[in-house]
């Protein structure tokens, strides 16, 4: 007992001593030119570990045990670094900072998993900072990506933007990796990045880095087309309450632009609050809500020919759903002739060729709900275990209603996605674990649902007696017998068959749509139930303190996909399918030639339990400083992609007697029995139906799908001249092997008699993922220039081009990009008295190009587009607020980023910003 009492007395005696020994330095930093508070400025004790950041009012408190006098090192991008001698604590330090040019100051991490200047990066990298976002004309940072060099985007709807680089562009690109705060942002089941669905909120973006091209050696499978790494704001660094309220309007002048949606309001509201509770504890919470009437896809182009709905009986519009049901009505004509021989003069000329007729389709507007809503919330807690070690816990949740394009249009209604992370890190290492939880909600699959609606209110045919097609045939013959021209006779036949049709908006239509779309695919409806999950654990260590002669970074990663779709998306009827991935990577780097040359190499080992063989990938790079701030770079990267879960295991209804299929033998043999009932290319089947010549049939050669790979070479040069001009030029060449594309095929389950292909109800169509045998090459070049014109004026321009060589014509390979892009920007971040005014403008030009949607949805020419965005802003310095007036696509000339995707018009907006960093 005496020992315990003595111990308590010692603690009580020591505690006051430690409190006395600790001192607090109070200060405030500001912009020397405007007098504004300088936020998120780093204040550190020189040659020490203690440090802090200025808050949203420029204030800071730094506690230290060091004795006076001492020196503070102060730094922030955009300001000249400064050292301040502290000799007394009697008053608050007032520290003015001088503005400095930022060209060449930008630092990146993702290029080599270590901090370096963007200028000296070994590979092409583009960057968006939070300052760029605050002065941008675009409403959200995902739209800003369209102006970056080398970047292609496909906009499926408000809230769903797919990003890629170097040509392979499509909605839901599984070969592009998106990482947010260290977490892979992909949907666990579908494997494509979720864009901004559960990404960072508009107010919480600290930095976005985008690697063009292959990046598997550092970031793993599916990094063939690039990697985007977004980092949220550290609550220790960025503190306070921030609010961003945008009120806008879209769908302006809809009649002129053939837009079925009337002029509508646009809302985007964001809030962020962060607080440092002590030197050890900080937290943040974020929320963003977006609501608008979405852009509508209304391409009426006929996928079956050149005619329109008024001239082609087999009309199937790109964005008309239900017309994929197409039948040769000759059997019905023959049945009519058998029942009434007097029809011979009318029927026999028709029987000389096939007469395909499609069911009547539904337009997207009025069928899919275009009320777009997105809500996401994020919370993060940080605890500094020591000055060097930090623990982080975060949670992000997103939900809403949006539409995206794949083999048809999908309306994601009430989807829910959550990401949850635990991490411990220091400057030299980290250990991170996270999970992604997915709930697809009540997703409506446009094409198959419309076909089922048609079959529900009136079946296509019941033998040759009853149904829509027999009624159509009767109406056609009745019109022809009365002397009506053939084209008009077909219209009369359709009018007769469509009597009693479930029209858009009627009680019958709504009842059928709800019933079919809410019934799982496995039970005869079109609803898929994706409840898949992803679990990931990874660790990395930088051995620089232990290995002095070179930089060594090593890491390991384990990932589990738990695929759970209740047999609606995958063959997982009995239980979830588990797919494991294991990987390890090593990076070696060294500076030689008096540190003017930086050489590095990386190796990565990956194993996926769906495939027998592991993959070893590598990267080698060299950066040489020719002159000060003049860098020549060369890199070789070998990248790979295990087939995504969709490419390997998808088993999804794609329409009436039509499926989207992965390329695993588990499906092709066990499910579809391709070994017993051979598949033929759909194109050759259609030729056989037209010619009745079996020689035109071309059998589809299938095999178990394999990983694809690419070898990429890049040569580039980057330099800053006179602190005012930065240029970057590059060229690349890539060779792809085992390229994964898609083919449309058909077989006749239950029989290998090719004559069964003549009966549409007998054969089944598949859109199958498979490896192309040919080697595919891509190449391109790019250039960019940024000029600091002084007085906060900045202009930028970039040009880039991508080409596909020796295209594999047996596949749909999604190389959907124009031959070149041109982007311009001109902006000022502060002018006038106290620099309270600012503006920015951007122009994006793309020539027309050919676009193919996998799954047979559509193919065609995307028209050229010139898109201009602009904004002007005014700051109320004392109120720490600002007003922005602007618009995107201000000419309101509608454009599209891909066939079957919506046409996008102008959004004019007014934004109020409070305490924006």
Automatic annotation (TrEMBL):
GO biological-process terms attached to the record: siderophore transmembrane transport
Gene Ontology molecular-function annotations: siderophore uptake transmembrane transporter activity
Record carries keyword Signal: yes
Domain TonB-dependent receptor plug: from-to ranges: 118-227
InterPro entries hit by this protein: CarboxyPept-like_regulatory, Plug_dom, Plug_dom_sf, TonB-dep_rcpt-like
Top-level taxonomic group: Bacteria
Gene3D superfamilies, per the entry: TonB-dependent receptor, plug domain
Signal sequence residues: 1-21
Entry keyword annotation includes Signal: yes
Keywords assigned by UniProt, alphabetized: Signal
A Pfam entry, by short name: CarbopepD_reg_2
PANTHER family, per the entry: HEMOGLOBIN AND HEMOGLOBIN-HAPTOGLOBIN-BINDING PROTEIN 1-RELATED, TONB-DEPENDENT OUTER MEMBRANE RECEPTOR
Protein name: TonB-dependent receptor plug domain-containing protein
Source organism of the structure: Sphingobacterium athyrii
């Amino acid at each position: 007992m005496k020992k315990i009492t003595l111990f308590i007395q010692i603690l009580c005696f020591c505690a006051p001593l430690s409190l006395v020994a600790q001192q607090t330095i109070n200060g405030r930093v500001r912009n020397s030119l405007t007098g504004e508070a300088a936020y998120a400025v780093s204040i550190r004790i020189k040659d020490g570990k203690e440090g802090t950041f200025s808050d949203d009012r420029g204030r800071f408190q730094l506690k230290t045990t060091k004795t006076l006098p001492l020196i503070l090192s102060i730094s922030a991008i955009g300001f000249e670094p400064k050292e301040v001698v502290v000799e007394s604590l009697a008053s608050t330090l007032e520290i003015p900072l001088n503005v400095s040019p930022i060209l060449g100051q930008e630092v990146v991490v993702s290029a080599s998993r270590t901090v370096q200047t963007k200028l000296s990066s070994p590979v092409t990298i583009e960057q968006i900072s939070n300052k760029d976002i605050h002065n941008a004309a675009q409403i959200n940072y995902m739209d800003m990506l369209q102006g970056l060099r080398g970047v292609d985007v496909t906009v499926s709807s408000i809230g769903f933007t797919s990003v890629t680089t170097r040509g392979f562009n499509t909605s839901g690109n599984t070969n592009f990796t998106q990482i947010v705060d260290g977490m892979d942002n992909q949907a666990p089941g579908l494997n494509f990045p979720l864009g901004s669905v559960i990404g960072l909120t508009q107010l919480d973006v600290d930095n976005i880095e985008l690697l063009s091209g292959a990046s598997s050696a550092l970031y793993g499978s599916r990094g063939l087309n690039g990697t985007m790494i977004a980092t949220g704001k550290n609550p220790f660094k960025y503190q306070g309450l921030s609010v961003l309220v945008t009120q806008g309007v879209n769908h302006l002048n809809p009649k002129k632009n053939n837009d079925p949606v009337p002029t509508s309001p646009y809302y985007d509201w964001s809030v962020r609050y962060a607080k440092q509770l002590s030197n050890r504890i900080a937290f943040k919470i974020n929320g963003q809500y977006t609501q608008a009437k979405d852009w509508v896809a209304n391409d009426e182009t006929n996928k079956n020919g050149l005619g329109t709905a008024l001239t082609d009986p087999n009309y199937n519009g790109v964005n008309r759903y239900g017309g994929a049901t197409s039948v040769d009505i000759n059997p019905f004509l023959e049945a009519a002739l058998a029942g009434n021989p007097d029809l011979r003069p009318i029927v026999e000329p028709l029987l000389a060729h096939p007469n395909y007729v499609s069911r009547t389709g539904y337009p997207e507007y009025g069928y899919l709900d275009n009320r777009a809503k997105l809500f996401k919330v994020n919370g993060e807690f940080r605890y500094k275990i020591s000055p060097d070690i930090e623990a982080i816990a975060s949670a992000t949740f997103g939900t809403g209603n949006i539409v995206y394009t794949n083999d048809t249009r999908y309306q994601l209604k009430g989807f829910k996605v959550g990401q949850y992370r635990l991490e411990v890190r220091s400057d030299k290492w980290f250990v991170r674990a996270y999970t992604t939880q997915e709930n697809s909600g009540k997703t409506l699959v446009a094409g198959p649902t419309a076909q089922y609606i048609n079959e529900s209110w009136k079946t296509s045919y019941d033998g040759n007696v009853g149904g829509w097609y027999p009624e159509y045939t009767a109406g056609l013959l009745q019109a022809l017998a009365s002397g009506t021209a053939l084209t008009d006779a077909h219209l009369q036949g359709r009018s007769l068959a469509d009597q009693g049709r479930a029209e858009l908006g009627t009680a019958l239509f709504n009842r059928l749509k709800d019933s079919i779309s809410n019934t799982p695919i496995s039970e005869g409806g079109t609803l898929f139930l994706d409840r898949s999950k992803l679990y990931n654990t990874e660790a990395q260590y930088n051995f620089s303190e232990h290995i002095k002669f070179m930089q060594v970074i090593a890491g390991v990663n384990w990932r589990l996909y738990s695929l759970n779709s209740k047999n609606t998306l995958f063959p997982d009827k009995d239980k979830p399918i588990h797919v494991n991935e294991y990987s390890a990577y090593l990076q070696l780097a060294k500076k030689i030639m008096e540190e003017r040359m930086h050489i590095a190499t990386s190796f990565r080992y990956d194993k996926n339990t769906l495939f027998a063989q592991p993959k070893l990938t590598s990267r080698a790079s060299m950066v040489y400083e020719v002159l000060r701030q003049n860098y020549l770079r060369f890199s070789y990267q070998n990248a790979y992609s295990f087939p995504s879960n969709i490419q390997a295991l998808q088993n999804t209804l794609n329409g009436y007697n039509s499926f989207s299929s992965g390329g695993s033998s588990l499906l092709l043999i066990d499910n579809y029995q391709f070994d017993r009932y051979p598949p033929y290319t759909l194109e050759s089947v259609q030729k056989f139906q037209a010619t009745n010549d079996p020689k035109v049939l071309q059998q589809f050669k299938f095999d178990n799908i394999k990983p694809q790979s690419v070898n990429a070479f890049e040569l580039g040069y980057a330099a800053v001249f006179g602190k005012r001009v930065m240029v970057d030029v590059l060229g690349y060449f890539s060779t792809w092997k085992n390229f994964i594309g898609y083919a449309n095929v058909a077989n006749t389950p239950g029989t290998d008699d090719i004559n069964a292909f003549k009966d549409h109800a007998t054969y089944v169509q598949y859109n199958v993922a498979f490896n192309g045998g040919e080697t595919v090459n891509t190449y391109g070049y790019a250039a960019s220039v940024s000029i600091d014109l002084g007085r906060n004026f900045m202009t930028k321009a970039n040009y880039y081009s991508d080409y596909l060589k020796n295209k594999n014509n047996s596949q749909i390979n999604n190389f959907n990009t124009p031959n070149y892009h041109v982007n311009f920007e001109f902006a000022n971040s502060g002018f006038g008295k106290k620099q309270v005014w600012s503006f920015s403008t951007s122009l994006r030009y793309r020539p027309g190009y050919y676009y193919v949607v996998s799954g047979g949805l559509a193919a065609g020419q995307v028209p050229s587009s010139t898109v201009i965005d602009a904004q002007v802003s005014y700051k109320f310095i004392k109120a720490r607020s600002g007003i922005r007036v602007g618009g995107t696509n201000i000419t309101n000339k509608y454009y599209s980023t891909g066939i079957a995707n919506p046409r996008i018009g102008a959004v004019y907006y007014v934004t109020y910003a409070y305490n924006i960093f």
